[in-house]
TrEMBL record:
Lineage of the organism: Bacteria, Bacillati, Bacillota, Tissierellia, Tissierellales
InterPro entries to which the protein is assigned, alphabetical: AhpC/TSA (IPR000866), Thioredoxin-like_sf (IPR036249), Thioredoxin_domain (IPR013766), Thioredoxin_ResA/DsbE_sf (IPR050553)
Domain Thioredoxin intervals: 46-182
Protein name: TlpA family protein disulfide reductase
Signal peptide positions on this chain: none
Natural source organism: Paratissierella segnis
Region feature Disordered, mapped onto this chain: 5-47
Start-end of Acidic residues biased regions: 38-47
Length: 183
């Protein structure tokens, strides 16, 4: 199983507590108990799934590519930039993983860079995976990407499995994919 890591500072927690506590103080004891009971009813099931937000972006050939185009295959969405040294180190592993797995698509989402620069980078590396351009950074925002590279894993039905906000080595990618396939 893959875990999506995120960061919250203790400062953020204090701000949240400040917003919640005044509401709780104004409740009487019966309202608090009723609220507690409702919270238990609203807990998500452990196996609850979430669809990966679909998106359509242009690839380096000028064609529109949607995430939903790859339904029926596992998808590794990789958010990256040509300037990112860790992305550069990770690219050959992504290409190898993509080429060795017929049931997987690596979808490399370049974030907010010039098409000609991205095209030159991909051609120089001779990478064969699908590359799309998130020119405004909107898809990266939808997926809460705040570091590069970030890899998001999607199952064959289009549900989010998890993500890793860091560079992955080839062996780690294989291990994650093997774990996903056995679930």
């Amino acid at each position: 199983m893959v875990i999506i890591l995120g960061g919250c500072s203790t400062k953020d927690k204090d701000n949240i507590d400040d917003q919640i506590l005044p509401q709780e103080e104004s409740m009487n004891e019966n309202e608090k108990q009723a609220g507690d009971n409702n919270l238990e009813d609203e807990k998500p099931e452990e196996d609850e799934k979430f669809l990966a937000p679909d998106f359509t972006l242009q690839n380096l050939k000028g064609e529109e590519v949607s995430l939903s185009d790859f339904k029926g295959k596992y998808i590794l969405i990789n958010f990256w930039g040509t300037w990112c040294k860790w992305c550069d180190v990770e690219m050959p592993s992504l290409d190898k993983l993509n080429n060795e797995n017929d049931d997987l698509v690596v979808l490399a989402v370049n974030v907010m860079e010039d098409e000609s620069k991205v095209k030159e980078y991909i051609e120089n590396g001779e990478y064969e995976f699908e590359v799309v351009l998130d020119e405004e950074g909107e898809v990266a925002q939808v997926y809460y990407v705040n570091s590069f590279p970030t890899s998001i894993f999607v199952d064959k039905e289009g549900y989010l499995i998890g993500g890793v906000p860091a560079m992955l080595e080839y062996e780690q990618m294989v291990e994650i994919m093997d774990g996903i396939r056995t679930d």
